[in-house]
Amino acid sequence: MSVRVELPEQVLPRWRRAVLKVGSNLLAADGGGLTPRYAEALAAFITASHADGRQVVLVSSGAVAAGRALLRQHAVDGGGLAARQALAALGQAPMIALWQSLSARPVAQVLLTHDDLRNRRRYLNARATLRELLALNVLPVVNENDTVAVDELKLGDNDNLAAIVAALVDADLLLIASDVDALYSADPRHDPAATPISHVPVLTPSILAMAGGSGSVAGTGGMRTKLEAAAKAAAAGIPTALFDGRDAATVQGLQHDRLYGTLFAAASSRMQARKYWLRHAPAAAGRIRIDAGATLALASGRVSLLPGGVLGAEGEFHRGDLVEIVDATGRPVGRGLCQYGAAEVRRLAGRHSREIESVLGYSYGAEVVHRDDLATVSEMEATT
Q1: DSSP classification of residue 369
Q2: Topology of domain 3-267, per CATH?
Q3: pLDDT in tens, the chain (384 residues)
Q4: Is 30 annotated as a binding residue?
Q5: How many CB atoms are located within 10 Å of the residue 152 CB?
Q6: Dist CA 356 CA 131 (whole Å)
């Protein structure tokens, strides 16, 4: 029975930026190595999305499988940490080469570790790099840096990594391409009465209990990790779509915002979740004073705070801290994550963005507070 009979057609939520996770089972050839068999349709979806003015970040598995294939003439024990790290290092190049061969746009490899996401400065640097790659119309291909990760600090699997990246880049949608077509009420491999679930409004404990383990030796995750990823994305206000990446027609349907799979709803809209966090998270002791023009600009819509509108900085705060933004009289205007520390903001006050590097000797970007990291008073009142 075809997927269209078993699963109803759904309309994907509106999106401008998505994270697409592709599992090892879709890339590993039966005899080892990588195959474009299923990747071609997924690459075509990415190309069509780019043509529509959308942005896609790809989180791709397959490096370990590719590395294992390169050394299949040797007896490599893939169970130990050092062996897995070696296989990952070997397989990264062919995995990136596969995606580059299928992409008309340049492909950039981005390797992340737990420390990159735990350390606020490195987190912001990773975020800025991904934003810049998207602005340059490059396809970022993200993976965990297995070569240097240690077990106790590993992100674990690419499903959860994809959810973290979706929040990192402020994605509107998380897409998980799998070797199953949907979430089922039970494991369909063992229970013939299992039925697909097309829509999950809330991830309850009973839903999580439906998940099984990894479906093959090529992958490190399973349905459980996909549900964990959907839960992380939902908490960040990002819906998740799970679908069969082996079915070319299903993948092609995504180009027209049609989903045949399972749609996990977000807890709230991405912007609502973001603004709510900015409204309620504890702020640093310092604050930024801005002039009347910047106050008016921030109140009028989604604009960033630039150095030219800054009058000064009070107190002490560091790059990445959440700070209060006030007008010249001290009246609250908003809150945001500052790209620069207090001492740097004081030096940049009133300057043009193009002067940042000449003043500081380096630059973290043209904005003191990026619009995606800023909530104005009116926006905060709406989420209270």
Answers
A1: B
A2: Carbamate kinase (3.40.1160)
A3: 334 446 899 999 999 999 999 988 899 877 568 999 999 999 999 999 999 999 999 999 888 888 888 877 555 555 566 777 788 888 899 999 999 999 999 999 999 887 777 667 788 889 889 999 999 999 999 998 866 655 544 565 789 899 989 988 999 999 999 998 999 988 777 788 888 999 999 988 888 877 754 444 344 448 888 999 999 899 888 999 999 999 999 999 999 999 999 999 998 776 677 777 787 677 888 899 999 999 999 987 679 999 999 999 999 999 988 999 999 999 999 999 999 999 999 999 999 999 999 999 999 999 999 988 898 887 766 555
A4: no
A5: 6
A6: 19
The 8 Å CB, 24+ separation contacts for 121-129 are 121/319, 121/320, 123/168, 123/320, 124/319, 124/320, 124/337, 124/339, 124/364, 125/364, 126/168, 127/168, 127/169, 128/364, 128/365
The CATH homologous superfamily to which domain 274-382 belongs is PUA domain (2.30.130.10)
213 is in an annotated binding site: no
Which H or E run contains 20?
strand 17-22
191 assigned binding-site residue = no
Q: In the chain, which segments carry CATH 2.30.130.10?
A: 274-382
What per-residue string of b and e applies to 187-210 under the rule 16 or more CB within 10 Å gives b? Answer: bbeeeeeeebbbebeebeeebeeb
Q: Tell whether residue 21 is among the known ligand binding residues.
A: yes
Give DSSP secondary structure letters for 214-226: -SSSS-S--HHHH
Q: Pairing mode, if any, of strands 10-11 and 258-259?
A: antiparallel
Rounded-to-integer distance, Cα 122 and Cα 132, Å: 15
Strand segments, DSSP code E, in 233-331 are 240-244, 258-259, 261-264, 287-290, 310-314, 322-326
Annotated binding residue at 35? no
* 179 known ligand binder: yes
Q: Is 119 annotated as a binding residue?
A: no
CB atoms within 10 A of CB 1: 5
225 is in an annotated binding site: yes
**What is the number of other CB atoms lying within 10 angstroms of the CB of residue 104?**
11
Predicted TM-score of the model (pTM)? 0.77
Residue ranges of the chain that CATH labels 3.40.1160.10: 3-267
Is 223 labelled as part of a ligand binding site? yes
According to the annotation, is 222 in a ligand binding site? yes
